[in-house]
Fold:
Amino acid sequence: MAELLLTNARACVKLAEGLEPADVAALADAGLTAYHAVRKAVPLLHPGTTCVVIGAGGLGHIGVQCLLAMTATRVIVVDPSEGARRLARDLGAHEVVEAADGLTDTAHVVLDFVGEQGAERTGLAVTRRAGSYFVIGYGGSVDIPTIDLISTERNIIGNLVGSYTDLDELMILAAAGKVRLHTRTYPLAAVNEAMDDLEAGRLQGRGILVP
Structure:
């Protein structure tokens, strides 16, 4: 949260013409995390599969776009927030629901962008036999008897940010208009206002501080 940052060339990505830094800033963090998880899941998401996305907020709304751009899977979004559900619909999710009731054993892949407050239990419940539960959000815990993993052959996969190559590929999707950030910009001096909006749930997507 400063006007200047000292870095090196290896940590920089050249932006395509038409991309403004403030428009894609969050791709280097939230976007990269979401893309990395989707990129890992792509081989599992052939036509005819279903992917359940838990949480369509700052990370999840990017994940939904990556799924639609990179796979032919059916995308179902679960989020209790009406604003997040509306955003997911606008982005093209095939189905959007408030809760996962009725989705038990549905998903070939689950992308859990929440990872706490019961989302982890929901994620495991909607993962079908031989399916994969990708944990991206954190704060909670995964508790499952080992016999249940063995008998259903489900996979639990952790995800941590991404690589330079992931970021470069994500910027290509952004330049092509296939991934766009839902953001709100704030001047650097309004950082406390941005934090308050985030905590109070008034901020959909990502907040961008502009020096």
